[in-house]
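User: Before I run my own analysis I want an independent prediction to cross-check against. Here's the chain; please return only the structure tokens and, at the end, one sentence I can use as a sanity check.
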Amino acid sequence: MITVVGVGPGDLDRVSPSVLDLLQDPGRTIIARTNRHPALAQLAERREVVFCDDLYDSATTFEEAYSSIAGRVVEAAGVGPVVYAVPGSPLIGEFAVRQILASDPEVTIVPGESFVDAVLARVGYDPMDRGLQVLNGHHLPDPLVLDKPTVIGSLDRPEVLAEACARVSRVLAEGAEVFVLADLGSASPTVAVTHPDRVDSSLAGLRTSLFVDAPPGGLIGAVATMRQLREECPWDREQTHKSLVKNLVEECFELVDAIERLEDGDSPDWPGYAAVEDELGDLLLQVLFHEAIARESGIFDIDHVAEVLRQKLVRRHPHVFGEAEVDSAAEVKKNWDRIKEEEAGESSASLLDGIPAGMPSLHRASKVQNRAAKVGFDWEEPAQVMEKVREELAELEEAMAESGDTSSELGDVLFSLVNLARHLGDDAELVLRGATRRFEDRFRHMESEGPLDGLDIDQLNKRWERAKNG
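Assistant: Structure tokens:
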């Protein structure tokens, strides 16, 4: 008793004769999704049509509107034959049609020319060439990947069009342009080719779409660029996993430095975040460099890396992706460590196995101490550690006075201080970096007062105190 038809993207004269016969059959009730479409508005001039715009106006969400439309169609079918007419094709972007089909599997579907067909015809693209991606402007994926020609529809409001253009602009190669297409199939269509930042948001409408066919930007573009560099740049071709290690370490520290410089406050530190973003990009470069090298040997590529990571995250978060329950972040960490040990298979010869020797010394010392603490080999409270620090300092003083092994004793002092930082809930590496940064800032302040050469220690100390208190 229900027939769903598509009336295409434009005027009624584009509708096929068979669909037009159904729409003009006096024995059928015609329900149309909206009157804001040329073919459906023209149909209403020829015969009675029940529109559903009132359901959109009264609904608080699109889902509620779709449900109400499906209910109206099904209810009308209980009285007699119904034709439900939709813009474009009932097979693309018609969510109420899904609900109608769920309530009555015997529904007849008569496809029509979709907005996608109209866009492809206008831009002259065959999707069998390089594929095609069709997206809903109200629900763009995050991250947005534009690795193939893409049609973005449902750009019905200025804010939706503006947001879609902004999202596209962030991942589009520099200088690339997009098609903006509105009212295709009507007597006065609009087609513009421009950069997404310059799209006029007043072009938004129920029949407005974007067509994007440009070299990929964003993550996919970065991957492609790195692979091209490996093929065409002599320096990049010469690099190996091992030759790049120093760059990887350096970029990690530069990112840490940028993060530490972020200023706390009620509003974001935009300049600080710009630096973090830049350093994250430099670190990502190192990841892509190693990926490109491994890919050339057929070992793994970026998708393998990402999928291994995804599986690991799911596996180690059973409280999110499974049925496990946790009460605190500490319990999450405990589960993570347990699962990590299970993944390793047979138990290691030592609890200290697996701690990278190349890790920064303070951080590695803390890792070693944490591993030892798992079996109870640890102090119970910070005061006990502080007493150990005093003991090690006394041994260092003794070695200094008697020309002893000051290097070993100084190492013991540092190791004890790392232990103290751990018991105080601090990261010794970050604590020392913070102290160094404070010294650097104060010393630069001293220099800002004039040359330091030639000043005696008292004068230097006075400048230091002003820097410290200012």
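Sanity check: DSSP finds 19 helices and ten strands in the chain.
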